Amino acid sequence: MTVQLVSLCVGARDPDRLARFWSGLLGWPTAEDGHGGVALAPTDDTGFLLRFRASDEPRRSPNQMHLDLTSATPDQQQETRARALELGGGHLDIGQSPDEQHVVLADPEGNELYVVEAGNSFLADCGFVGAVSSDGTQALGCFWSRALDWPLVWDQDEETAIRSPHGGPKISWGGPPLAPTVRPGRWRLEVAPPSGTTAEDAVEGLLDLGATRTDVPVGHGAVGLLDPDGNEVTLLPRR
């Protein structure tokens, strides 16, 4: 039993403002959202929405996920940096060394954003949205590989990455050392049952792979689960 990745969901104090920032940075238009948020639809092969839902949760620690944006040239890296700053983003100090080639920024609500240097080999064949970079175990990468039926494209030294057979961004997990799991998290993956499959079957399939149930309500007919590392996952109803 597999599920389909529908959206990467971001909790936001001001979903409209945050959507405007990311729309301006990525060039993605707004899309219909029937789950109580604001959505952006990709204009490339990303394959899933970026969705913003209202949340009062502050940024209490580094997020479990962030986006890595690629650069074809050093000039493009600086152009992306400048555009993010013009849209209301800022620089973020996460303890990076001065010789790091990627640029660490934050969106208007403090969420991390990496602008990766030109020539980065790991993201060489990816588009502008190169990766959803995540904190997580090797077991979590294997869980999502089976849940989404996406092949592992990296599995070394407890670091893993998967990618859709149709292309788009990678989803990667950095392995240990891991930061403590913070719930509720501000970023989460949202999935849906494939066509012809019930939500109950999809839930049972994810449970069989190592997910667990949570009694935290998520609303709009969705089901809340925890992945094997304890991060929130939302199973959305098919529309």
Automatic annotation (TrEMBL):
Source organism superkingdom: Bacteria
Pfam family, one: Glyoxalase_6
Domain Glyoxalase-like positions: 8-115, 135-235
Protein name as it appears in the record: Glyoxalase-like domain-containing protein
